[in-house]
Amino acid sequence: MSDLVSFLPWHEAPARQWLSQRERFAHAWLIHGLPGIGKRQFALAAAGSLLCESPAQGLACGHCVACQWLAHGNHPDLRRIRPDAVAFEEGAGLNDAESAQTGATKKAPSKEIRVDQLRALGGWFNTATHRGGWRVAVIYPARAMNQITANALLKVLEEPPAHTVFLLVADAPDRLLPTLVSRCRRLPLSVPGPQESLSWLKQQGVDQASDWLAAAGGAPLLAQTMAEAGGSPCPAWLQDFTAAVMSGPTADIGPLADQLEKTSPEVWIDALQRLFLDLLLAASQASVRYYPSISKQTVRIADRASRANLADTAKWLNQQRAVAGHPLNAKLFVHSALQRAALACAPQA
Ligand SMILES: [Zn+2]
Asked: Rounded to an integer, what distance in angstroms lies between the CA atom of residue 213 and that of residue 223?
């Protein structure tokens, strides 16, 4: 993958504004926002703009020596610090300098940023930069740093090396080491407007763009990933579930649960969470957000169900989502979750 990355259309304006203050630029930034809005691309494009020798309105020119190095993936003043698993996803081979020096071998690539990846930066900090410019380290996702790695970075940030900017990328700052967060300036990125996202998704060739964008909660890159994974923006089983709970209190959701046993719990819980948020919106007379294609059913269920039960179950689903990666008994888990969801959708007595 080439390292010269351009900004997504919705990020150009905020990037220009942010990068225009580069003379008094902080040495560590925490770029955060919801998953699937393009934070990683923002950080890498920002790194390119900081390294560019003749930026145009703050953004990389694409032509200078620095931009050409970036395009070939070998700018000496840029380091991407990410788990090996992410590097492989991005197409970096084992000959990738950063992976090679950390000794990645045949075992499954690590999902963590290891402390030796940070320690390896020591020599880099002591090397002069190209024409005395910036040195940029992009760390993503920041939550992939374990406690030891996060503490090692904290030490570095307490006495920051000269001419060096750290760009950390995170979905949720509250899941990071608080002392580390306090060392960074925050740069929140918001979800882009639907029109901008839709025209981008159409450019990427995504069909049913508006339904996918809704299902992704407005996050365009997430919508693209979901669309590429296939299926329908509103999963077929979820449509069957709403049909079943509307058919009456004796609805048998057993076969549906059987069908989901082999699906990863994160996937079906996410979908149920979104349905319950739609139900709560409908119960407050607001428009549904995630699954407009089944909004008629959602509104009817919300009209008849107890709002307190819906809210309780939405909360319960949020809690289950946190442990969904490791259910003790996957079969029991999906059956009890669907049963509970169906009960919450039942008409009030
Ligand atoms: Zn340039």
From this structure: 5
Nearest to 189 by CA among 12, 11, 9: 11
Least confident of 79-88, 147-156, 245-254, 334-343: 245-254
Instruction: Answer positive or negative: Cα dihedral of 151, 155, 156, 158.
Output: positive
User: If you measure from the C-alpha of residue 42 to the centroid of ligand 1, how many angstroms do you get, rounded to a whole number?
Assistant: 16
CB 238 within 8 A of CB 276: no
Output the pTM of the full model.
0.86
> CA end-to-end span of the chain, whole Å?
59
Task: Please give all residues whose CB falls under 5 A of ion ligand 1, grouped by chain where several chains appear.
Answer: 52, 60-61, 64, 67
pLDDT for res 3: 60
Give the distance, in angstroms, between the CA of residue 56 and the centroid of all CA atoms in the same chain.
29
Q: Which residues face 145 on adjacent strands? A: 113
The rounded distance, in Å, linking the Cα atoms of 210 and 53 is: 40
Phi, psi (5° rounding) for residue 77?
Answer: -100, 10
Taking the centre of ligand 1 as the mean of its atom positions, its distance from the CA of residue 46, in whole angstroms, is 12
Q: Which of 133, 44, 127, 147 is nearest to 90 (CA)?
A: 44
| Separation of CA 64 and ligand 1 centre (Å) | 4
Q: What mean pLDDT is predicted for residues 182-209? A: 96
- Cα–ligand 1 centroid distance for 21 (angstroms): 18
CA 249 to chain centre: 38
The span from the CA of 95 to the CA of 100, in Å, is: 6
CA 303 to chain centre: 34
